[in-house]
């Protein structure tokens, strides 16, 4: 049966922008007007939204206590390659109706694994061919690709950190192909999320050996990228735990430290997922800000967790305040390109209507768009930024401050300075004032 | 030296409402216009703001790792009773300039403990006299009083739950006086927060005995209240932990269950502090909603915690979304009176300027006021409420549903119903739709 | 193909007790000697171990990020009823080789759901028949049964708390049958774990209505139990969250309060799972102790979580200290019967060897057995108990203490007592001393 | 009044070792026999216990909700320098009676701050003189010194990370002196714990600037150490939060990464406190193991937190299992010298008896001693270690494994290997087996 021209979302019309949308017109964008210029760039360039293939087209609503709840029209009982192609067509229909210009994928999301590596790669090649056609037809681009190194039982004890070199080799073979495929699809980045790169118990684990192997693996990836001429940015995505008890790429600072130690910091940036940041015990915006200030923020998996839950809920970002913090960092660093805001989110298991997929994305796009509009006021105004700069003025304006920043001061000299100048003045941190002003911009 | 007419905040003018306030005019109320009618009542009746005496006039910025940082003009080196009076005058100047109509206090906040119980009570009486005068002069009223049963070393092993009956008796003597004093000041409620009513270690604790003693204590309080003719509402404030490892009044449901078990549920309602709610692992709004739906929400200690920190930070509520949830429940139950929104918050230890005290309260008042304006739209609109009702329509509209609610259905009957009617239809929970609509009201 | 006499664990010999077992003879019991008399009863009566069917015979090692990893010889590609029977035979072989006298099950664990409720019940009846035969052959008994009201998509929005009365009715029909089946198998208890009885978002939920429905449901269960003459104990198992954001049966105190409020406290006791207790923010032993002291501890799902993880890991209890706390409570209340220590645990996803199933159970049995031996010393010694009693002696030995406990004291009388007697003496809580002594018993 | 010869603990006799101690002889060491040879070294060399001055001699039982509870005989109402000296004498009496050979201190613990920096340094010098005498008399040595850069209000916004260069300078002046004093006292290490080096709010913070300043500060410390000829090890102590919302030295990996990035990894090692490790969301033993495997474990602040509490409780380590994990790492790296096991612990606020100080230390010493005896068996046996090595054997024994470790393998080569060799075998991780064996050693 041919499904090439089938419409999978016949009841959904292309999503449009209408600032006068009623409160319950949730299939209309009230704030996101993609070509509208904000701070000198169109909104879509600031926000670079992307749909993730895995949650949105492979997620079926199963959780650890329950069976799948979603009945998707593209998941009919055909052979697996036909289903894979239908799913891909449904996805591009979805991207197009939503008006999102990018997608992201794992190798195993888009094409089924075969009996052998040859069969698996052949499946992938066939699907990649169709993907390229659909990209050409729709203009939708690939933000990044990645390899799924966590679902197959072979990786249960880790991929690049597996105690068995044979598994390490398998992971290498898989990533080799995944980078090539991402290159083929014009992917602007390639992501490493080490879902099983960690430990379940220290009792059976040699952490140093495993981390050394992980570094070796990443070095090979850099080499291979160069060899095939892939120009995309390599990204590491931190997560503290789940599925493993401890994931080595715990958070932004841990990963940046690892890259420094193993001499990989020129070749990788980070893909930050705020739901992972909060799982690591930090504020929602912490990792994004932390790596941005070191020039290491490559891309964002824009979702949210639930602060009262201890696992990855991958919810759609619907909180203006959180999105505003993220946008503030993005504006400060001048944009995210070649990275983007990838909606690594899933509709709730109970959100079983097809339209829920659209409502969720529209709600999140609008939340970021509103945040962008609000933060644009903050940046145009310049008052806020001036306040922060003033806090640190002594380093720019006093001799002692300049010397400290230049690295030429000594303890003896500073000791003499205190003997001469005595106690510093008390200066309020004014946190509530900053909060109140920030709130005024969010009004 | 006479300080009776001293102005403690000479640099601060009375806070006014100005909807055109600039983003950094943080000593101006942009949203809270106390007498403006919203949903049929003035804003101040919906919100019933209160300043807490302890954090705002006794807090000095000490934390467990550091010394006090605040230099307050009312804490000069006079004798303790003179300082207590100055502090009280400063407080009423603060309430008045801020335009807040209520305050709350612990017995030990306002008057120093003496060498003997007689001396302590005499100090308290003297201060109460001045308080009444200041209330009369300013019109500021007492939302509630309470006894501090946690700071004095005598209570280190608990007050009403102390293993030593002598300490229990001391707590009883103290609460007796505190209720009387609250009555004297026209307090509209009286609060029990059991700061040390819990355990540090199960190894040395008989939890049942301690809870039985706690119930006995509360029964005596009810009796005493009746005896002296105090008409105020008695309230229990849940908190899960800190300073104890486990506090018996863990959260709203625990306290409501305790009250039911011990037959005290007609005599007490709850005072919910959202920072305690989040420490108990719940969503910010959970306890407020939970006890409101059982008719048990008496008052709110409106503050916020930090979801990435595990202790009580008592921050000023500055998050519109959180405040909107609280206001939604308040509107649903028709108001909070005789309870209120008590700012049980402290400026950060680093916020050492006197004006920070005002900025923080203004920011929080405005945040709630804006939330009230937004939620008023939601209630006027009726769309949102209709959506929720529709979800449960089967209980109102089908025979089987009505029987279930009436308590007349049996397993056998329901079994027969399923044999006849088979599988229920699948109904989306539409969480993202609710979130998106809620966001539209917050725009 | 007949598999009636197939041995599923041919490589595993019956587990024996040998106190001289070498450190790595992990298929030998070093401490659990079932018939040995400890404190007047055989070990197996104190500990009443049970194997759970779901994790041990239905769990396949899938997690939310990965596919199943276990290849079980009983899960061959026969029709589903044949597989169900093989699995059952494997289970009884396992129970017998392990020497555990009880098992627990969900209705859906043991028999597959059919197309219709009639088919489902017929499947269940057929399997129950075989189960009874196997029980008779082996002497293994049923500790408790329960209904799975969380895996099927129909329950995604709740079972007894579903917004749709039709789903409520389905749950009722299912529980009716599950109680009958448990009765048929001689189950000594019946458990309610409300896996989806909670909310995902307060925005779309009427919590009061849902809780009223839950109470109505439980009342029907009590009625039905009486009608069919089932004498087993009804149990509720608290859990704070997962899969829902907030589960109504949050923890022991919440459930006890709910039962009191709705007048159900005479008909139900609690089944406590320590992994749920720690997820609720309490100490491992908290809920067990809390409900035991109120006469409400019915049974224990003896497992452990990981304090650094925020989800239910259902690990085997391997920590002597934790087990000792549990055993201490069990001894204090004189035993757990008709409840037991049900190993609601799963081997790790990476523990793919068949022998891992045995090793895990043996390790946990030995851990509890050692705890029992150590705690027996503590009880025989009587020193520890005397210490705790002495802490509360003032309530038994002084007039004021006796009056407080009798409920005849008043605030006025206690106030007078303090005026006369002044400050209480300072008494050390001696936590470290209790810890040190407890450690000496664990040496 | 002369207090030079006063005995501060007249009721406590020197603590002795007696393996036959009764369960409640908690002032006797049952396991720690300092000179007994274990694995070729005396116990005291493996364990290198140290008493911390701050908690044990400056802590008074205050917490954030309550006043001090301890009445210490050395804290009489003399002038502050006399009290400081008495306290010091009491401390050395305590060390000696306890039989602990090391102590640790902050500059401000031992000597009071004066009005000026000159006065402060003079106080310190005077106290250091007495300390040296007491060290000489008793043979007790200094494990490490440190500067208190968090208690004084001047540091409320940070010390080396303060927005004000004047405060940075003050911190430098203070650390200069603290290192000199530590050198004078023969300190074997010097510790940096950055109690206020972090942020309270990202809204008012430039994290990059602050971290750059922190690195500059540490570089000056290295320079100064060399200049004065101090040979002790410099150590950084990670902590994730408290008192700040986010502390830059979050955990072991974060600190190691920071040191790598800023080129400081040759000059610093880490001082790990397990209570901080668990606050960062890791297993108790995680940070100790993590930095040991990178050769960066310098010393341990051996205490414990409470997994159900979100703040630093600094409890005495009384859990054999936890101590065993720590000891396993110590033995693996061949010992901790020049670091040690510093009891950075405080008796509970309710433990007000003087003897509680001894009981707590004895309990913890015994817990570690027993752990050492148990782990010695594990190391002598060699079975456990062989199991772990075997898990990673493929890297030592196969060509592909060797090439991966040598850094000479490529993705292409590994891809070819998989094409040739196909799927790896499934290997159980056997976590429960490791746990069971580990438990056998703990029996």
TrEMBL record, chains A, B, C, D:
GO terms for molecular function: metal ion binding; xylose isomerase activity. PANTHER family: PTHR48408, XYLOSE ISOMERASE. Residues 97-283 form the Xylose isomerase-like TIM barrel domain. Its main location: cytoplasm. It comes from Rotaria sordida. Belongs to the xylose isomerase family. It is found in: Cytoplasm. GO terms for biological process: D-xylose metabolic process. Its EC number is 5.3.1.5. It is an enzyme of class 5 (isomerase). It catalyses: alpha-D-xylose = alpha-D-xylulofuranose. InterPro entries: Xyl_isomerase-like_sf, Xyl_isomerase-like_TIM-brl, Xylose_isom_bac, Xylose_isomerase. Keywords: Carbohydrate metabolism, Cytoplasm, Isomerase, Metal-binding, Xylose metabolism. This is Xylose isomerase.
